Amino acid sequence: MSAAAGARGARTGKPVGAITRGTTNPNRLRRQDRWIAHALVPALRHAEAAPVVVDLGYGAAPWTAVELFDRLRAVRADVRMVGIEIEPDRVAAAQRVARPPELTFRRGGFEVPLDGNRRPLLIRAANVLRQYDEDEVTAAWARLCARLAPDGLLVEGTCDEIGRKQAWVALGPEGPRTLTLSAHLASLERPSDLAERLPKALIHRNVPGEPVHAFLRDLDRAWAAAAPYADFGVRQRWLAMVRAVADSWPLTDTQARHRLGELTLRWEAVAPG
């Protein structure tokens, strides 16, 4: 999203952004959903009535919005989900699964249009910025973060077609906080295989001299050293890898999250140099 495109959208009232490929599959974003439901527990439970969450750029079919809505309802029964898409035909097609007022769909883009200009507790933008240039990411993040509630969260990242390899950045109103890697461990050859799914802000930075490259290098080395643990299962190998890098990198999550094939660390440790 270039600055010029954002300005034009603001002047004309048209959605800000570009149409994505729209690729989607049921349960593709289950790993993100699971992490979001865990991370948002405090904010959801302390929010005022009917907190609003947004699935931005949900794609050609509305499955990701429906699935995230159902998973968040387990935490907060009165949560309101708004699926936002820039392509009118996708919005029209999604109406068949809408459950107003709890689950609705509307046309929009990075301006995140909501009734009464409400500020959402969550904006999830999965596989949206992947098609943009790296130098457009900062402006897109800033625009989306400005729409968040004071204790809100922006989750922006990418995944493969069936959701076995995922990576995302979590941002608060102030900016980026953490990077999470998540993998289907049984199909993972080495941690650096996740590099192809890094968020746009990092995917071109996986080169020598950049922090994210060093992080993936250290994960691969620890993974190789943990090979004997594979006799006890791939999860034990992953946990041994995590323990090996914990003293060198600022991990923020717990073993319960690690057991799910996740790894989260503070953003500043891998931010582009």
TrEMBL record:
Biological process (GO), any one: methylation
Keyword Methyltransferase: yes
SUPFAM superfamilies in the cross-refs: S-adenosyl-L-methionine-dependent methyltransferases (SSF53335)
Composition skew (Low complexity), residue ranges: 1-10
UniProt keyword annotations, A-Z: Methyltransferase, Transferase
KW Methyltransferase (keyword) present: yes
MF GO annotations: methyltransferase activity
Domain of life: Bacteria
Location of the region described as Disordered in the Swiss-Prot/TrEMBL record: 1-27
UniProt name for this protein: Class I SAM-dependent methyltransferase
Biological source species: Streptacidiphilus pinicola
